[in-house]
Write a structure and sequence with these properties.
By secondary structure, this protein is mostly helical. It contains seven helices and no strands. Helix 3 packs antiparallel against helix 4 and helix 3 packs parallel to helix 5. About 6% of the residues have low confidence.
Length: 212
């Protein structure tokens, strides 16, 4: 497994507890946190495939890429990261020596949010055949994938093991209360209409990977 790898996802299967739904968060908050990282890594895999199409001079699936980035903006940036910010703050209180690492990851949340918006806008322009420099769009997408992967790996390797040891039930309750409990619109049990094709694509990629 590479330096920036997140452990491989389990196959999409039967109805299960949504990570960061009220029930999922309170049942096992650390497992819910990790499950969302695994899901984000799935989406980065799909983005990377489209970036490879760019590199070969082929036309990527702009709609698919747009849906991926839209999800990461609306769910990861608006729900997942605010909860992490609270978890990080609680962890820094309990282990001040981690403050430097935590501050870096908090800054990365802001960078990712800005990069998500920029990439989403570029993808919308490309999908509408607005003249967009191909090299700039390919570079933006590739950089986004690499940066996001590194960020996830840092959280998995540096933060989550210490969070498992140090954060209390009170801390996890504060994390869960950061934003209202919500079902995951893509990986949850009730997939939103916008994400149905993306969910099908993810399931297909999982089947292919299991056959290899």
């Amino acid at each position: 497994m590479g330096k920036d790898a997140v452990p491989a996802p389990e196959p999409l299967g039967e109805r299960r507890l949504d990570p960061f739904s009220k029930e999922g968060t309170m049942a096992n908050p650390l497992a819910a946190w990790h499950a969302e990282h695994v899901n984000f890594a799935r989406l980065l895999d799909l983005l990377e495939i489209q970036v490879a199409n760019f590199h070969r001079g082929e036309r990527p699936n702009y709609d698919l890429m747009g849906d991926i980035v839209y999800y990461l903006r609306s769910f990861a940036d608006c729900i997942h990261h605010p909860r992490e910010d609270v978890a990080f703050a609680r962890l820094a209180e309990r282990e001040p020596a981690m403050e430097l690492v935590i501050n870096r990851l908090l800054q990365e949340h802001r960078v990712i949010s800005t990069a998500s918006e920029e990439l989403f806008n570029r993808l919308n322009e490309a999908a509408e055949d607005v003249l967009t420099p191909r090299v700039a769009l390919e570079a933006a997408a590739a950089t986004y994938v690499v940066y996001y992967r590194h960020h996830l790996a840092a959280e998995e390797g540096e933060i989550m093991p210490r969070a498992a040891q140090l954060l209390t039930q009170e801390d996890w309750a504060a994390v869960a209360a950061t934003v209202p409990a919500a079902s995951d619109p893509l990986f949850g049990n009730n997939v939103e209409a916008r994400f149905r094709e993306l969910r099908k694509q993810i399931a297909m990629e999982v089947r292919v990977s299991r056959q290899e």
